[in-house]
Structures are given as C-alpha cells and as structure tokens.
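Lab notes, practical 5.
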Amino acid sequence: MKDTFKDIFTSLTLIFIVCIILPPVLFADIKLNEVLVEPDQSVELLNTSTDEVDLSSWYIDDSGGTTYYTIPQNTIIHPGSCLVFSSNFNFNKASADTVRIFDNTAPPVSTLSALIDTFSYSKSPGDGISFIRSPDAHGEWTTASASLSFFNTIEETCLYFQPITPSPTPTPSPAPTVQNNNNSTNTKNIYISEAMVAPDTGNNEWVELYNDNAFDVNLIDWYIDDIAEGGSTQKKFSLLIPAYGYMTVDIKSAVFNNSGDEVRLLNPLGDLIDSFKYDFSEKGKSFGRESFNNSEFCLQESSKNKANNRCIEELDEESKQINDTDETISLESKPYISEVTKINTPTIDGKNYIEFNSTKTNDVLGASTLSYNHSQTDRKPILNSLLLISTSYSLLTLLSVSLKIKLRNEKNNSVSIHTLPRKLT
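Output from the prediction step:
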C-alpha cells in the first residue's frame, strides 16, 4: 500500500515537471525577432530551442486594449526557424507602444495570461523599416530595412522547409488536403505585383508578390532575378503568402538597373513563373501591375504589401483634363448686370452718356456691363438731334399756349355780349 502511494506521488511529480515546469522553459525560447509597424504590421517569431513548439491560440498584442491577435490552430514553429504573422495589430505609428507575445494560458486581458516576450518602442521608424534584433533572438534591438522571413545577420531564410521524400513503394495514398504550407514548385497563380527598382537613398530594392489562390502558399527557395544572363546574382528567398494576399521580398544588395532591365520570378527548378520589362525608372517610384488579367506594368506611387495604386501617367492625364476644362470655362465667362440700382440721365457735359451702377458683381455667360465713354465726335450727331427735338418741342408748346389764350379770349367776349341787359324805351 505504501509503495502504491509512492508510485502515485512519483507519477504526479513527473507530470507536474513535464506539464508545468518544462513548457515555460521551452516557451521562453520563442523570441520576438523583428517587428514592422508600417505599412503592413508584421511580427516575426524565432524558435531558439531544439524542439517544435505549438503556437496554437497564442496571442500577439500591443500595450493594452481589448483587441488582440490569436494565432491560428495547428501553427507549429520548428526548431531554429521563424514564422511571420501579418495583421492589423493596432501598433501605434506616431507614439510609443509595446509588442507583446502571450502563450495560450489565457488572453492578454486576463490576469492569468502568461507573457513570453515583449518589445517597446517610442514611435515607428518609417515605411518599410523594421525593428530587428541583431544578432538574432538575443541581440540588441535596432532598425533596418524590413527582412521578414530572413535571419537578421545572414542573408538566408529562417522559414522551415520539410523536404518531401518519395515513398519507396508505389502504395496508394489518400488524396492530399490543402494546407497552409503549400510548397509545390508548380504552384499556379503567383504573380509579380509590384517592384521597387530605384529606391530612395538608404532603402532597399524589393519585389512584391501576390497569391491569387484560396489557400496560403509557402514559397521555399524561389528566386528573384534580373534579365537572363544579366550578370547579377539570383536572390534566393522563402516566403509565406496568405490566400489572396501580398508579401514582399526585400533585396539587400542591388540587382536591377535604373535605366532599364527585367524583373523575373523563378521557382526552385529555375523555371520562369512571371516577369516584366521596363525601359526607365524614377527614384522612389515603383512599377505596379495594372491588372492581374494582363501583364501590363506602369509607374506608380509605391503601395508595398497592399493593392496597387493607379498609374501616375493616368492621374496626370486626368489632372490635365480638369485644368483644361477649368481654363475653358474661365475664358468663356463674361460679366453681367444682376441688379440695376441707378440710371444716370444723359447730360451734355457728362463724360458718360449712359451709366448703369450695379450692387452685384456676379458673372454669367452671354452678358456684359453697360458702361460707355463716347468721344466728342461720337456724341455730336446725338446732341444735334436732341437740340432739334428740344427746339421743336418748345415751339409746339408756345404754339399750343397761344392757341389756348386766343380761344379763351373769344369765349369770354361771346359770354359778355349775351349777358348785357336790354335798354328800356
């Protein structure tokens, strides 16, 4: 009986050690290795242990609040490898914030939550600039061009790739299911979406890829290259692209010529998957695909890790048309009189023969202000006519008055004769 209790106690102790003590030690080997605040917020985790760690229902959070990101189920991070998570983590750009990683013990808002790693910053270092640990996992935090899915100190991918070993016998196997780490070299619908071939001083070249599939695609040991046999070394990369999502390959050493070149995407076998050519470039501007229904690219304002902007040439043409329309309207518009408040009567000595004063100054098409300044030569015929009319009117008036006086006198004389009394005889 005594031995039985001893065995039970020993078993419980082992369970406690394995389940309670070892996991935190193992979880502590999961490190924040890179943080990108903008444009698309991303967090890179690195497993420094020698064991796989299940990150299912772990949490990525900022310094507080009620919203947080939950890592999907069946997310395994392999020893010595990394995983990159991109989402809207609500990291502050213009002010200080903290990036925190919690295991699946409890959500960040709970007092029981278990903090695994954390990093605080004062503000975003800028578009496409990451906070990184150098050396990886244990070094001091610094800033550098984003290199998600790559080790910070060496130009090699930190993503895990499980080689596919063919079965020695042709035994039938069940139909494969779609998983989040699809890595077929024949993966279809992976496109070059955008490329920065002439970055601003201090920034890296980059190529943005788009996954036009309903499942995540893990590209392992693919290549970015310039024109065939152009002399530049092919850039090997590995990248996990979410379904219908964008991800970017940052190129730390220059590959593309500013005066003209070709951007090519190659699979691990060296097969050409997608490409485009350009004859010129503009510093700080990217070449973006106009549509995934064709292979036309145009110069645009960069839109790293998101849908492309419109072509600069197209926007300039629209702006020119708007300016031309405004200029046409301005040339055709004419002043008008909206309200006449006073009419100055003509005078002989006045400089303005006719003058309209208006209290409004609005414009309308098809009318003009009535304000005339005539010379002495222009006024003379008019003045002569007015004098003639005035003289004639005066004569007619005098004649009319004379006739009235005459008629009145005759009437008075007639009345006077008929009213005289008859003389008596």
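Observations recorded by the TA: The mean pLDDT is 75. Residues 332 and 365 are 7 Å apart (CA to CA).
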